[in-house]
Amino acid sequence: EIVLTQSPATLSLSPGERATLSCGASQSVSSSYLAWYQQKPGLAPRLLIYDASSRATGIPDRFSGSGSGTDFTLTISRLEPEDFAVYYCQQYGSSPGGTFGGGTKVEIK
Amino acid sequence: EVQLVESGGGLVQPGRSLRLSCAASGFTFDDYAMHWVRQAPGKGLEWVSGISWNSGSIGYADSVKGRFTISRDNAKNSLYLQMNSLRAEDTALYYCAKAPGSSPLFQFDYWGQGTLVTVSS
């Protein structure tokens, strides 16, 4: 099973700043089958990025994903007030459902 | 508009059973794989089970294998999760999630709002 480790656990930033979230895999993720989700309190997760760098429908272009192999990054170019949330990475493609990382909380500084 | 509405959660004693349902609308249900994902209170996401469009491919997390059974009724646009021998550690919000393709080997592009399962005596 591929284990995903997200860092940092918490990121304290101000609106307008750039956020860089990392997701490391214990082994190579095939075909860059990696997704990022955003979850706000009391709501279901929302798909942001799939296949490591493709934005899902309706996702603003301030969200971008990059990486391959075992190292992946989610970047939010300029944080908006609505972007403060918890972010999860997920690898898929190697087994049904795949695995999730432990999450990164982006909080207001 | 894609809608996934879960139901069937509640308070149940350890060792008992519960059946969750997910009613889907707004898309051609039998074209897509479906999944159950859970989230324990204050914790992260855990994939539970997934099923391909025609039920030909099914998978379970090790933590529920042998106790939970996923199924679907394409004629009723519905997904199910039969949960037996429930344990305290199964306490979580259970989400129904849709895959963007017919295979369960994909990400989840739409999620329901979840149904809460509490296992306690």
Query: What's the total count of β strands of chain A?
Result: 11
Helix content of chain A: under 10%
Number of helices of chain A: 0
Whole-number mean pLDDT of chain A: 95
Q: What distance lies between the first and last C-alpha atoms of chain A, to the nearest angstrom?
A: 36 Å
Estimated radius of gyration of chain B: 13 Å
In percent terms, what proportion of residues of chain B is strand? over 45%
Coarse shape of chain B = globular
Q: How many runs of DSSP E, i.e. beta strands of chain B?
A: 11
Which word captures the global form of chain A? globular
Cα-atom radius of gyration of chain A: 13 Å
Residues in helix, % of chain B: under 10%
**Major beta sheet summary of chain A:** 7 strands, mixed
So how many helices of chain B?
Answer: 0
- SSE class of chain B: mainly beta
Encode the helix/strand succession of chain B as letters: EEEEEEEEEEE
Largest interface: A-B, 26 and 26 residues
Strand content of chain A: over 45%
Structure description:
- The complex is a heterodimer of chains A (109) and B (121).
- Chain A is mainly beta.
- Chain A has no helices and eleven strands.
- In chain A, the strands form two sheets. In chain A, strands 2, 4, 5, 6, 9, 10 and 11 form a seven-stranded mixed β-sheet that branches. In chain A, strands 1-3-8-7 form a four-stranded antiparallel β-sheet, with no helix packed on it.
- In chain A, β5 and β6 form a beta hairpin.
- The radius of gyration of chain A is 13 Å and the shape is globular.
- The model of chain A has no long low-confidence stretch (mean pLDDT 95).
- With 121 residues, chain B is mostly beta strands.
- Chain B has strands at 3-7, 10-12, 18-25, 34-39, 45-51, 58-60, 68-73, 78-83, 92-98, 110-111, 115-119.
- In chain B, β4 (34-39) and β5 form a beta hairpin.
- The A-B interface holds A 33, 35, 37, 39, 43-47, 50, 56-57, 88, 90, 92-103 and B 35, 37, 44-50, 57-59, 61, 95, 100, 104-114.
